[in-house]
Amino acid sequence: MSSSEGSGERPPAIRASDAERDQVAKRLTEAVGEGRLALAEFTQRVDAAYAAATRAELEALTADLPAAQGDQNQGGEPEHKRRWKLAIMGGSDYEGRWRVPRRMGVFALMGGSKVDLREAVLPGGEVEITLVSIMGGSDVIVPRGVRVVVDATDFLGGNKVKVDEDAELPDAPLVRIRTYSFMGGNDVRHPKLKLSRRDR
Question: How far is it, in rounded angstroms, from Cα 140 to Cα 131?
Fold first, then answer.
């Protein structure tokens, strides 16, 4: 009997490698496309994966996920189809846990909508959101860590884009936003950081 067995001590935890961290991050990315993780859950887990020191910490991040099933179109809808949401002289909020169409459009006429992606479920690793704003606009909230690309065409209007590109995580889902504004505009931003009582 070895001394470690005799003393009842546990064997030391096995250290995680960079390759193993990358493998877990890839599985988490696939889980987003399968609709198993919301964007906010993804960013939290991937952040933890790259900070993990041991294999046990990595295994805990995927313990509630099945083995990878490969690339599948979980949305069950044609790639070319775009689903439009209208905000005419008013607006609607899309927030909480909701499934984002692979290609989504928001038309705002003298109104606007809030498109909150923090708890959203994506149909794949990339979605495209088109914002058409006429004397109105929409507010798009994207969690930190997710990649964001904004292509804008504006006339007598504009957009406010406040995202930290340095916070993007490797292999993170991509949110591609195309905007067309006339006398209006849209806000694309990260969630506001919670302030402590001392900072308020």
Answer: 10
Strands, sheet with 147-155, edge to edge from the N-terminal-most edge strand: 83-88, 103-109, 126-134, 174-182, 147-155
Amino acid sitting at position 65: L
Question: Cα separation of 145 and 161, whole Å?
Answer: 15
Alpha-carbon span 36 to 32, nearest angstrom: 6
* Total count of residues recorded for the chain: 200
CB 113 within 8 A of CB 137: no
Q: Which two tokens stand for residue 72?
A: 């599948």
Residues 6+ apart with CB under 8 A from 88: 107, 108, 109, 110, 111
Q: Quote the pTM value.
A: 0.69
pLDDT in tens, 80-135: 566 777 777 777 788 999 999 899 998 888 888 899 999 998 887 889 999 988 88
CA distance readout (Å), 18 to 10, 30, 59, 77, 164 = 25, 19, 14, 36, 24
Give 134-172 pLDDT, tens digit per residue: 888 899 999 988 999 998 888 877 788 988 888 888 778
